[in-house]
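Try this one yourself first.
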């Protein structure tokens, strides 16, 4: 039944306007980050690493949180409009599966966004004259950024399910992204939910994680995802028609 729900969510997104946000929004921080890197090239001497810090400075704290807010808000908006919740929740499916299908759909959008961001980063590096991209690091940043971003997705899916407004959850996600920057500055980025995405992507290179550090990061992310998924499942199970 979960597979059928996922197919239904995929069909809803086929000609969705969220794809405009997916394609266009990451280009803006990529352009700004590249321009900032070229302007300060005499100071930013670590080449690919320096370029990455400039890209993620704009992406992880502003644009990507907004994108995730849009994804989650749009997925839930389809049900919040025209009393679609009543139709959906009277279907012979587990309500927890309904929430899980929306969470997985938003997570897939997150993964695609991470890949697109990394593609733009590599392209920007070649355009600025850099050679030999650090492929292992880029893949690592993408994987751990996706895992950390899934924490944000789980929070935003829960928030969007409970708030009918489309804009308010997006604003909350942006505020969360800014709080993530503050969390890193206060050295709690490894435990603050909205810091984990930028922490995993090594945004602005604030930390050098060891194997034990990554293990802790993975466990914290899984813990948060499990907690918010459980809260979402309980909330939707008790939802009135």
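Now uncover the answer:
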């Amino acid at each position: 039944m979960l597979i059928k729900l996922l197919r239904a969510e995929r069909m809803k997104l086929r000609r969705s306007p969220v794809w405009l946000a997916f394609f266009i929004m990451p280009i803006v921080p990529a352009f700004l980050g590249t321009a900032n890197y070229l302007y300060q090239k005499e100071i930013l001497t670590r080449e690919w690493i320096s370029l990455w810090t400039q890209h993620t400075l704009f992406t992880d704290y502003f644009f990507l949180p907004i994108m995730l807010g849009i994804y989650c808000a749009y997925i839930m908006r389809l049900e919040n409009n025209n009393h679609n919740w009543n139709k959906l929740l009277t279907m012979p499916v587990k309500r927890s599966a309904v929430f899980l299908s929306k969470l997985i759909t938003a997570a897939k959008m997150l993964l695609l966004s991470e890949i697109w961001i990394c593609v733009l980063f590599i392209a920007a590096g070649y355009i600025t004259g850099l050679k030999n991209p650090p492929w292992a690091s880029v893949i690592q940043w993408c994987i751990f950024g996706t895992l950390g971003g899934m924490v944000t997705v789980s929070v935003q899916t829960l928030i969007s399910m409970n708030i009918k407004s489309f804009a308010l959850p997006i604003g909350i996600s942006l505020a969360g992204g800014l709080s993530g920057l503050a969390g890193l500055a206060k050295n709690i980025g490894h435990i603050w939910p909205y810091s984990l995405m930028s922490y995993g992507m090594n945004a602005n290179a604030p930390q050098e994680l060891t194997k034990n550090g990554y293990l802790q990061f993975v466990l914290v992310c899984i813990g948060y995802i499990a907690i918010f998924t459980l809260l979402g499942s309980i909330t939707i199970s008790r939802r009135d028609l």
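Discussion: The chain has a mean pLDDT of 88. The chain has one domain: 2-237.
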